[in-house]
Amino acid sequence: MRNRILSLVALTLGLTAAVQAQSIAAPPDGGNQHATVSQYIGPVQVTVDYHSPKVHNPANGEDRRGKIWGQLVPWGFAPGLGYGNCTQCPWRGGANENTTFTVSNDVKIEGQPLPAGTYGLFFAPGQDEWTVIFSKSSGSWGSFWYDPAEDQLRVKVKPAKSEYHEYLTYEFPERQLDKAVMALKWEDLQVPVAISADSTSIYLAQIRQQMHNDKGFDWKNFVAASRFALDHKVALPEALAWAKTAAQPTWPGQENYATLAILAEAQDANGMAAESKATWEKAIHHPSASATEIHQYARRLLTQGKKDEALAIWQLNQKMHGNDWPVNVGLARGYSAVGKYKDALKYAKLAADQAPDEGNKKVLRDGIAKLEKGQDMNQ
């Protein structure tokens, strides 16, 4: 009995050692380093997780340049890999485990919708065209168990020449707030894949949610929410509602130049021209209105072609703020806009002496030069 117990203990220890041996840290299989790259498209995070093979064979140093595409990585779908149940097997886009592609929000791939989530990323390479596959099965090892029934999306893309890459890599060579290009690059070839996102809608959804939590306790956040909607020309009724809350004299609002100005803009955007004009009048006469804020309002009028109205506001700014910067700048621009270049030149020179930095000094010097030639400094 004692010998039997000892044998069972020895067997248990052996099994434990085997399990432990399977979970120890070890170098990546074949020297294919694990890599991850992430890129934001506006608020959307895109992440590719992969293992990166080399052009030179890590086992013997063989230079496989010119032997990667169509040989090491076969064209099209392989008929089988000798293991698993895959019969038409794409390439895993890397080495070892599946390459995975994760997006935090819904996106479009080459114009086709892809829901938020994590996908197995596969490729069927071709000399002139590649098929990119996003599989709902992301946890398999390579393509051994690939099943086309689990495809979420397939798109076609065109390969192109690339600068040499010893290691397979994924990069984002083109990036904008609502779109980017992800490119697989290895050896002398790259495969660009276009990704786009409705960043404005996603930001707007986040703002709506934030206005329902503690962010909605501060009038500044209502101004910011309204500004986002107005700048992007979306949700204009909501922009007006947020602006009204910001400008109300009771909590969480506060009546000041900033809140009245955003309310005036929101009213105008919603077709309330008379209300907008009245609110602007209230804003520029509010005690919190600074010389710079009134100046910017007049610049806005000038941009709209309302030259006489702009000059009147700049003259009002002088009455309210005297010789403060940038009062004289405004008077120079206002008189210049209505063709009174002699008056404009006087105030432009006064402004140049006040200019707080070299950038403003240069703009004013250029304006003075135009006025001395009888030209509008605003042009």
Describe this protein's structure.
The chain has 379 residues and is α+β, with helices and mostly antiparallel strands. Helices cover 40% and strands 22% of the residues. It is built from 11 helices and 10 strands. Strands 1-2-3-6-7-8 form a 6-stranded antiparallel sheet, with no helix packed on it. Strands 5-4-10-9 form a 4-stranded antiparallel sheet, with no helix packed on it. A hairpin with a 3-residue loop joins strand 9 (160-175) and strand 10 (179-196). Helix 10 (341-354) packs antiparallel against helix 11.
Topology, pairings included?
Blueprint: H1 2-22, E1 33-41, E2 44-52, E3 100-103, E4 107-109, E5 112-114, E6 117-124, E7 130-135, E8 151-157, E9 160-175, E10 179-196, H2 199-210, H3 219-232, H4 236-247, H5 257-269, H6 273-284, H7 291-303, H8 307-321, H9 327-337, H10 341-354, H11 358-372
